[in-house]
Design goal:
Structural class: alpha/beta
Radius of gyration: 18 Å
Helix content: 25-40%
Bound molecules: thiamine diphosphate, iron/sulfur cluster
Number of helices: 12
CATH superfamily: Thiamin diphosphate (ThDP)-binding fold, Pyr/PP domains
Largest sheet: 8 strands, mixed
Order of helices and strands: HEHEHEHHEHEHEHHEEHHH
CATH topology: Rossmann fold
Strand content: 5-15%
Strand order of the largest sheet: 2-1-3-4-6-5-7-8
Number of domains: 1
């Protein structure tokens, strides 16, 4: 059964009050991730906005144990935690490694790839705010073409994003999925599903960042949804090789009403210097990726 607002567990593992920005979608996503794991988890996190959410000792805003790991080591840290739990005979806890796009696409990719190649038994979640936001928005491997960032200040980034979810799928994982903070129940159901599977499971979560993307704090959910409606972000899962569009992306596909990507771009100050040529390039890229997903989707129910 799909989770809805009525049957979602009321237990909270992210407590009220943390130090993330107002309107930050990372809080919302993390809240649902921990609910799905019912507190039966050890988390490992590299430096990021999420470490700010966790807080500085002796105060914390979460009720689960967390290792703060060096930036490049999240996958290796997960491997160590798995070995430790095995030595203790503990089968009740899930190891969750969770990092931003900087910590995943760039700095942590080798440790993650090694752990995934070994099929180590953990869930890896990349929350993607398309930049190194904790240190003031430097460009990452996930920053889009043309986006202004601290290190691409005027013309914007001159390269396209890499497709990290496709890279992880190429490792032959039993479960790979995408999610979006504006659709937290879809995220919740995917984490529940991943929890029950053995091996390395990878989930990419699209997390809009108001100060980094330069949109009002009150618009986070709408911006995340616009990403789905325009195909900028696509909700899907791949379970043992079987591809399925989910939630709002499945309904966009059923209705055949993908909106122009321009509608997503014009809402954000980071794209204010985009040229018409770049907008067309971004639209072509979105169209091609959307078509690849439609071609793979056998069931749109
Ligand atoms: C080896 C190393 N280099 C740089 C830093 C500084 N640093 C801390 S957080 C951060 C940004 C992390 O970006 P990302 O992984 O995308 O997560 P976000 O901040 O967006 O949540 C950086 C560069 C560090 N802690 N360690
Ligand atoms: S910088 Fe962005 S991702 Fe980081 S806490 Fe603020 S809104 Fe969230």
């Amino acid at each position: 059964m799909k989770t809805n607002a009525v049957n979602l567990t009321e237990t909270e593992y992210v407590l009220p009050g943390n130090r993330l920005c107002p309107g930050c979608s990372v809080s919302l996503a993390y809240r649902h991730i921990l609910k799905a794991l019912e507190g039966q988890v050890i988390v490992t996190v590299p430096a990021s906005c999420l470490t700010v959410l966790h807080g500085m000792y002796p105060v914390t805003s979460v009720t689960v144990p967390c290792v703060n790991t060096p930036f490049a080591s999240t996958g290796a840290s997960a491997t160590g935690l798995i070995a430790g739990l095995k030595a203790l005979g503990r089968t009740d806890l899930t190891v969750l490694a969770i990092a931003g796009d900087g910590g995943t696409y760039d700095i942590g990719i080798q440790a993650l790839s090694g752990a995934a190649e070994r099929q180590d038994d953990f869930i890896y979640i990349c929350y993607d705010n398309e930049g190194y936001m904790n240190t003031g928005n430097q460009r990452s491997g996930s920053t889009p073409l043309g986006a202004i960032s601290g290190t691409t200040p005027i013309l914007g980034k001159q390269q396209n994003q890499k497709d990290m979810t496709a890279i992880m799928e190429a490792h032959g994982l039993p479960y790979v999925a995408t999610a979006n903070a504006s659709y937290p129940l879809d995220l919740y159901d995917k984490v529940r599903k991943a929890r029950a599977i053995e091996g390395t499971r990878f989930i990419h979560v699209f997390t809009p960042c108001p100060p980094g993307w330069r949109f009002p704090f009150s618009d986070t959910i709408r911006i995340g949804d616009l990403a789905i409606q325009t195909g900028w972000d696509i909700l899907y899962e791949v379970e043992n090789g079987a591809f399925r569009l989910t939630s709002a992306s499945a309904s966009v596909a059923r209705k055949g009403n993908l909106r122009p990507v321009r509608e997503f771009l014009v809402e954000q100050g980071r794209f204010k210097n985009l040229t018409e040529e770049q907008i067309n390039q971004l639209q072509d890229r979105v169209n091609a990726r959307w078509q690849r997903c439609l071609d793979r989707a056998t069931d749109l129910s």
